[in-house]
Design brief:
The protein has about 180 residues and is of the alpha+beta class. About 35% of the residues lie in helices and about 30% in strands. The chain has a 7-stranded mixed beta sheet, sandwiched between helices. Helix 3 links the parallel strand 4 and strand 5. The longest helix is centred in the N-terminal third of the chain and has 21 residues.
């Protein structure tokens, strides 16, 4: 198993759509049960994520960055940051996912650092993200990296389809007023 120091981080592009969408779908299936409907997670989630990532990676206009982490074993994860998404909170980490069997090896921390570095390079400002209330492992991860819970809201359904939700899941906003504190 690679040490995070041996990790390389690069910008994602259209050739990475299937890798990213596959990991995104797998992560949602593992962590979003109970918040998203089983029918969606067991059925349409991968096709939905393929569509989302195809659009995102085809239309790279500098307003966002998708960063992939790789080591000698291959793809380990990705982070997607949208610059200046909110006038108050700053840039949004819209996704951060690590391959399930590679978790707890420092790769998530390196991806978070890369996202923060991209925000600083882009011009600074704050950094924030949303995490599902039920995803306590992710909350602990962000809190251990200095994230502060700022507020909460009802989760928007993927693709706007309300039948993809189960109940009324809550999203929690985590913030870093100084993203440079995450850069290693």
């Amino acid at each position: 198993m690679a040490h995070p120091a041996e990790l390389s981080i690069r910008r994602g592009g259209p050739a990475d759509v299937e890798l990213i969408a596959g990991l995104h779908a797998d992560s949602w299936r593992r962590h979003y049960r109970g918040a998203y409907s089983d029918a969606y997670l067991d059925g349409d989630v991968e096709a939905d994520r393929l569509e989302v990532w195809s659009l995102r990676l085809a239309n790279q206009d500098g307003a966002a960055a998708t960063l992939l982490a790789e080591d000698e074993g291959g793809f380990v994860g990705f982070v997607h940051v949208v610059f200046d998404e909110d006038p108050y909170w700053g840039s949004l980490v819209d996704n951060l996912h690590v391959v399930w069997v590679r978790k707890r090896n420092g790769f998530g921390s390196r991806l978070m650092s890369a996202a923060a570095g991209a925000v600083v390079e882009h011009g600074g400002g704050g950094l924030y993200l949303w995490v599902l209330e039920q995803n306590t492992a992710a909350q602990a991860f962000y809190e251990a990296r200095g994230g502060r819970r700022a507020d909460h809201r009802l989760v928007s359904p993927p693709g706007g389809w309300t039948d993809r939700l189960r109940g009324s899941p809550i999203g929690l906003r985590y913030v870093w007023t100084d993203p440079s504190s995450l850069v290693v």
